[in-house]
Write a structure and sequence with these properties.
Strand content: 15-25%
Structural class: alpha/beta
Number of strands: 12
Shape: globular
Strand order of the largest sheet: 2-1-3-4-5-11-10
Largest sheet: 7 strands, mixed
Length: 368
Amino acid sequence: MRRIAISVAATSMSVMLAGCGVINATGSSDDASPTKGNDITIGLLLPEKANTRYEQFDYPIFKKKVESLTNDKGKVAYANAEADAGKQSSQMQQMIDDRVDVIVLDAVDSKAIAEDVRKAKDAGIPVIAYDRLAEGPIDAYISFDNELVGEVQGRSLLEKLGGDDAATSKIVMMNGSPTDPNAKQFKAGALSELKGKVTIAKSYDTKDWAPENAEANMVEAINAIGKDNIAAVYSANDTMAGAIVKALEAAGVTELPPITGQDAELAGVQRIISGEQFMSVYKSYPLEADNAAEIAVARVQGKDIQFDALTRERVDSPTDKDIPAQLVPVVALTKSNIKDTVVADGIYKVADICTAEYKEACAAVGLK
């Protein structure tokens, strides 16, 4: 994927959004002669439920935004594939049969879904790739700068290990699913920071991002390397990080090595507070979902100025070039900026994070 570099700052996403040039670039109902009114149906296909973000954030935020953009006349037809590419194909075919006005697709398998994208296109239904870059003739793509996510993870881990002094440190890489194009980009970004600067003792591509698979991989790595010889673990997301912690503790590790993550899941934030996990990558799901809804509505209603303003970047997929895109910025999440990111942006309340088990740890970092 061709990408535009976006700077990373440990500040609230509400501040960062202004720097992305999209806060007021939403156009209006006068941008063009609408091809449809507010009575529209948008199909939303999300990939799985193991990662809590999709049910907890993406779907409800997207639905609420569509309703606000259409004076409560627009509808969202929602389906979750539960990590089953075949099931998602059937769900997409159902939406084509139902003649939804536009499909917003977060693909389980970006390559396998290409034929369904083509079927939608042939039926006159535009497809917006959401979060993962689906193959086929998509109309637009919105996601985070995925290589930057990996770079942030890798750089954070390297700094924790001591930079130039980390060359002999043995690390384990727990990458995401091989069918997810984002996982490949996270991995490439991380390797751009880590390769040649640490010793990558074991590396795994984790089927379906499943925590049970990550745990089994970590057990294998511990047996191969030795529990006391693992200096750090690169985990591509928080769900797998939790499974990695479980495997290390089961092996008798009492002082956990630094472990990365992604998604700022509540359990991941709590592990950061307690010191079990070193960092995560915070991605503003409200921003991504809100802007995806705006892109979809603008595309259906023929608001070309608004659509162009929201998709100023360009990316390439294996099948198509110069796809209109929006790449949303990311933030390295550590103990030091939890209050300024996930709390300030309303993702979690302090009370959500600082339950009885974590009250002491929260107090130690000034989160109360």
